[in-house]
Structures are given as structure tokens and as C-alpha cells.
Design goal:
This protein is an alpha/beta fold and about 250 residues long. It contains twelve helices and eight strands. The longest helix is centred in the last third of the chain and has 16 residues, at about 160-175. InterPro entries: DNA_Partitioning_ATPase (IPR050678), P-loop_NTPase (IPR027417), YlxH/NBP35 (IPR033756). It comes from Floridaenema aerugineum BLCC-F46.
Length: about 250
């Protein structure tokens, strides 16, 4: 049965899109057919990680939401872009980066029910094993929809007081929406912090499992969103951590 995985954070700057790209790619590397939807319509960016240039994105999620196209026409096969050479497939449905398109979405909005219909259509048409949803930070009706239909909700937080408070709110909302399975991922952890102690503290605070702890890495910064980290540095500690999280998704 295909699985829908939403990646969310209460605040921006947590590394959510980077996390989504790496986790989705890691799952695809295991021979799965994977789709990624960039629902961060006001501030899209995950296409950069998949080496998809704006001029190549003639059709986007926006076009589907406006009723111009079936959502499958906005799906781009980025398998080769990230170096997938085995049996796995990776598709990206990007949001438009055109200022006029972003302004139109912000001004007029869209029918959020279309998202749910679009997700179902993608899974069926592309024969996906996994669909990853890169959400917009914060809480909104769009976020509630993604959370409600997900088999997994992964909440990204940094070891930061603002993130802790925002994550507490999000966890409560997710429980009210009866999300099927929730996992936490701690990102951008300073080297002076003890990962195991931090993991234990977060699990005790939220009574939810921490799927992975990811250190603050200069290697990630140096890559500067030009490609997927786990493909370029497969033996790196962070890539190993992504494989651990991916295994929990696959087995869950």
C-alpha cells in the first residue's frame, strides 16, 4: 500500500526541504517509486536540491490548483538529476517561483480539497510507493489537510526554545487530527550537545519517538542546495542517519 509522508516544521529555517529531499531520495535509492510535492506555495525551493531549474518548470502545482492541467503533467522525473541509476524512481511536483504566480496564490488562495484529489491521482498514475509532502511552515488549513491524510508525519525541530514551543503546539494539533504515526527529527544540532541526551529529553517532553538526530554540518552548508547531500556524500554521518529514518518509514 502506498504511504504518504508529510514533512513539517512550525517555524522556517529548520532545514525541512533539505530533509525532505534527502529522505525521499534515500527511500528511492532502495528501489522505490517516490513522489515529492512542494506544497510550500508561498516560498518554494526544493526544486533547487533536485537540480530542476525554473526555466524547465513549464507546468507546476499552481497550474493544477488553478484547474489548468491534471497534476501528473506537473510531475518531473528527477531521478537522473540526483544520480539515481538503479530501479528506483523520483518525481518532483514543484510550485511556481514566478512572482506573479506566488502573488496570485497569496491573493486568491485555492481549494485545499484539490490537494487531496491531486495526491491520490499522483499515487495512482505514477504508481508510487511513497509520496512525500514538503509543507509550508506553521499551521494552516493546508497543513491540517496534509497532516490528516498522512500515514507518517515527521516534525523537524532544532534545539531552540522557539522551536520547542512551536513543536508542542503542532504535536497537540496532530493528535487532535489523529495522525496515524508521528516521528520527530532534531536538526542542526551543535557539536557540543550530546545527541543521546538531547534525544531522550525531546522524547520525554513530547512523548513521541525521535527518528533521527542530525548534526549542524559545514558540509551541508558548502553544498549550498546544489544537489542532494546523501547522494554526493553517501558515507557521511548525516547520510547514515537518513538511512536510519528511511528504514523506520519503510518498516512502519
Amino acid at each position: 500500500m502506498p504511504k504518504v509522508v508529510s514533512i513539517h516544521s512550525y517555524r522556517g529555517g529548520t532545514g525541512k526541504s533539505n530533509f525532505t529531499a534527502n529522505l525521499a531520495t534515500t527511500v528511492a535509492l532502495q528501489g522505490n517509486r517516490v513522489g515529492v510535492v512542494d506544497t510550500d506555495v508561498p516560498s518554494p525551493g526544493i526544486h533547487n536540491l533536485f537540480c530542476l531549474e525554473p526555466e524547465q518548470m513549464s507546468k507546476t502545482l499552481n497550474n493544477y490548483l488553478w484547474g489548468d492541467i491534471p497534476i501528473e503533467e506537473a510531475a518531473y522525473d528527477v531521478s537522473g538529476n540526483v544520480g539515481l541509476t538503479q530501479s528506483g524512481k523520483l518525481y518532483l511536483i514543484p510550485s511556481s517561483v514566478k512572482p506573479d504566480d506566488i502573488a496570485r496564490i497569496l491573493k486568491d488562495g485555492y481549494d485545499v480539497r484539490l490537494m487531496n484529489d491531486g495526491f491520490r491521482s499522483l499515487v495512482k498514475t505514477l504508481q508510487l510507493d511513497y509520496l512525500f509532502i514538503d509543507t509550508h511552515p506553521g499551521l494552516s488549513k493546508e497543513t491540517f489537510l496534509s497532516i490528516a491524510i498522512s500515514h507518517f508525519l515527521i516534525l523537524i525541530l532544532r534545539p531552540d526554545k522557539q522551536d520547542y514551543q512551536g513543536t508542542a503546539v503542532t504535536v497537540d494539533v496532530a493528535r487532535q487530527l489523529k495522525v496515524r504515526k508521528m516521528l520527530l527529527a532534531i536538526n542542526k544540532v551543535h557539536s557540543k550537545l550530546n545527541p543521546e541526551a538531547l534525544k531522550q529529553k525531546v522524547e520525554e517532553t513530547y512523548q513521541e519517538k525521535v527518528a533521527g538526530v542530525f548534526g549542524l554540518s559545514e558540509d551541508v552548508v558548502q553544498l549550498a542546495s546544489e544537489g542532494v547531500f546523501c547522494v554526493k556524500y553517501p558515507e557521511h554521518q548525516l547520510s547514515q542517519e537518513f538511512r536510519k529514518v528511511a528504514q523506520q518509514i519503510v518498516e512502519g
